[in-house]
Amino acid sequence: NESFQALQDCDERLGGILIVHVLIEWSPEQSLESPVVLAAIRKAQSLLEAEPLINYPVSVLDLLASLPGSRGDPADRIGLLALVPDDIRQRFVAPQRRRTVVTARTLDAGTAVYAPVFAKLRRDLDAAQSEFEGVTMRPTGTSVVAVQNLNRMIRDLTGSLLLAAVVIFGVIWAAFRSFRVGLISVLPNVFPLVVTASLLAWRGGTLQISTAIVFTVCLGIAVDDTIHFITRFLREVRIDGDVPEAIRRTMVAVGSALITTTAVLVAGFGILLLSEMWAMRAFALSACVALLAALVGDLVLLPALLVCFVRRRWMHLAAGITPADEGRGRETPCDGPRADVTEAPAG
């Protein structure tokens, strides 16, 4: 939209609309006039200038150079800071707190672009401050804090996704009392996550908070559909022990419900594709793709896995049917009579 285009234009023409600082602090034995402090300020400014994605670093040295008079040693011009308005002077230096900042601009290019830049800057500052006794230098500012916090949140979401997956599959294993069922349920639920991640990589995107949330939300929805399908399948397979026929009846019973639920959710998330905000569109696209892939996993992959890996011996144990009872068409008490299971009339 027009607001975004205006901000993007300012971002390009001004060298960035976000701010990064290098905070320089000195010990009580030092002062702003000390050669060590002034040398540290020059070093920090030169490190910022060396980074191609960091633009227009400005420090108290530039402020002193802008004041009238002959441009001599900056240490001799410190007294001129008293002539500078307080609101301007305090943006660069606070002598009473023994600190000053070197300020620069960064582009609004995302945390994935600037994370390695700030990591390199932090290493360079750590190596440089050993040259200046009693002086510490560290990067700070909105850009640096945003990169740290967002990356930490994304790592936390990723870790919680892995933990949730382990817990969910463990609960499925315990609920159905079968390690085989737990393993069978893994692939249909991992499939939508893999498809979404592949789409993200194919489009050249990066993992952000919005897309990381999609993985967690869609995992829960996919697992819910899987539990519905497996629960119904186990009820159906107890009737006659015929796995393909049990899958067919399960499809008839719960397939339409899964399709309807997915259609409603895709329609709800799809509305966000009309948003003017890029993050909302990315979230909506990832969610819709994940939901559709989850439906394919539950209606295509899961039945195929059940046919391939549900063995006769395991089916007997799960259904409570012994091999001797297999030919009797015995029903379990929980199933009750069925209208479609009748005896053929004599003759």
Descriptive report:
62% of the residues lie in helices and 9% in strands. The chain has twelve helices and five strands. The longest helix has 35 residues, at 142-176. The termini are far apart.
Point out poorly predicted stretches: 316-347
- What form results from the Cα inertia axes? elongated
The largest pleated sheet is described as: 5 strands, antiparallel
Helix content: 55-70%
Percentage of residues in DSSP E strands: 5-15%
Multimeric state? single chain
Total number of beta strands: 5
Note the run of SSEs as H and E.
Answer: HEHEHHEEHEHHHHHHH
Number of helices: 12
Considering the chains and any ligands shown, give keywords for the structure.
single chain, disordered C terminus, 5-stranded antiparallel beta sheet, 9% strand, 347 residues
What is the secondary structure topology, with strand pairs?
Elements: H1 2-13, E1 18-26, H2 35-50, E2 54-58, H3 60-66, H4 86-89, E3 93-94, E4 99-106, H5 111-128, E5 135-140, H6 142-176, H7 179-184, H8 186-202, H9 209-240, H10 243-270, H11 278-309, H12 312-319
Antiparallel strand pairs: 1-4, 1-5, 2-4, 3-4
